[in-house]
Amino acid sequence: xxxxxxxxxxxxxxxxxxxxxxxIVATSSAAILIRLALDENMxxxxxxxxxxxxxxxxxxxxxxxxxxxxxxxxxxxEAKLIALAGICLAAHFTAWVTSLKYTTVLVSVVIVSxxxxxxxxxxxxxxxxxxxxxxVMGLLVALTGGVIIGIPLNGALxxxxxxxxxxxxxxxxxxxxxxxxxxxxYMLVGRRLRRTLPVIPYVWLVYGIASLCSLVVIxxxxxxxxxxxxxxxxxxLAMGLIPQLVGHSSLNYLLEYxxxxxxxxxxxxxxxxxxxxxxxxxxxxxxxxxxxxxxxxIIGVLMASRGEIRAADTxxxxxx
Length: 320
Prior knowledge:
Blueprint: H1 8-11, H2 14-28, H3 30-39, H4 44-66, H5 68-72, H6 76-99, H7 105-112, H8 115-126, H9 133-150, H10 159-193, H11 199-221, H12 230-254, H13 260-267, H14 270-281, H15 288-314
Helix pairs in contact: 2-12, 2-14, 3-12, 4-6, 4-11, 4-12, 6-10, 6-11, 7-10, 7-14, 7-15, 8-10, 8-15, 9-15, 13-15
């Protein structure tokens, strides 16, 4: 991975900028497709597993044909990290998909997109990297946004209805937070592995491990996988091919040309795209306080991401 962000303007090919657009559009569709699958009464575990399994199957011929030698040379440490990343990715999608049953697309996607902040915090504990002032300020701003979302301001509703709405919002937000924390571990592991592993074998292995984990949980919990309408299965197919195979893999590809914090900033456009699509597809307009809180959270994440970029430019703290 190229370590100096200042050299990107001279060395980044035009196709990388095209991939940015493709990644944002593809990932923005994820929450919409998940909501459509939930509307078909499909269990969250099935939805999470399907998108991972479909992407894994689609990548298998390429991974085995073009990267067979590299896959055979995997070290034990690499295998352990890949297993950890796969488990975290499975947990991330399960928690995030479930969160969309309880809260709006905007709140769910914004909170799950706070991953860059939690990555920085994890780096403090596991890599002994000092937390920069910008990351601390970004975290405080993002937490403020979370408080705004959680404040009960439903005076026009009856007390039971207001309490029910608040409980649903908090439950969805907490599940999205679990999704953000688990994907943060996945991102942190990915930063290390992507230094030595090309994108195709890396995502194929991680998606495959995540798929297996999800399948085991489905079997243990006796989660139904049949008996749904064909439309639901078409949504699952689209989910595996568009946001997962195209969108998620594109973000991993961009790590070859941009600092991880910059890629994280690109991903902060996803909540905006998802919210716009939700308004068009579901006529879903979140309450004003959810919009305000979400904007504050996005600002906090962008502040933290800029802090990481500045640290990388000056050689302080982060060393991707």
